[in-house]
Design goal:
The protein is mainly alpha-helical and 149 residues long. 64% of the residues lie in helices and 8% in strands. Strands 1-3-2 form a 3-stranded antiparallel beta sheet. Helix 3 packs across helix 4. The mean pLDDT is 92.
Length: 149
């Protein structure tokens, strides 16, 4: 390793630790609201709330998560009657994931928890700094997508 390289102050551990802390706080808020929803579950739900009836491959691609992690999250959500798998009429090899009534109603409970967490996390940070941070993170993602992630 380069002698002047300070790994702990490099982007990867800073982003990773920040994501981990945010995930922990958000799941704790979900738990306090009465739901054992993980970040993996949350990601699936958010994408389905935006547009219901996506397949597992789409959900994995949109979330940047491995297909196996998304499959586990969908299985868990399905066991609790938050989502249902329905065979795709256009391609029977695929299942489309739809929210149930119970899954749709979770939005009203969980979104305020997520919004509170994000507001607390960004307290004292200007909108300009947040916009710049998001822009830099998107550039890093684009740079890394070149490696097939």
């Amino acid at each position: 390793m380069h002698p002047e390289f300070d790994f702990e102050q490099s982007i990867a551990p800073l982003v990773g630790k920040t994501a981990g802390i945010l995930a922990h706080v958000m799941t704790e808020r979900f738990r306090q609201a009465g739901y054992e929803i993980s970040i993996e579950h949350w990601i699936v739900l958010v994408h389905l709330w935006r547009r219901d009836g996506r397949n597992q491959q789409e959900l994995a691609g949109m979330s940047g998560r491995h297909k196996t992690a998304i499959t586990r999250a969908i299985n868990w959500l399905e066991e609790r009657d938050f989502v249902v798998r329905i065979p795709d009429k256009a391609d029977r090899r695929n299942n489309l994931i739809y929210l149930t009534f119970k899954g749709k109603n979770l939005k009203e409970i969980l979104f305020p928890c997520a919004i509170d967490t994000m507001e607390e996390a960004t307290r004292g940070i200007s909108s300009e700094d947040l916009d710049h941070c998001k822009s830099v993170l998107k550039m890093i993602q684009e740079n890394m997508l070149k490696y097939g992630c």
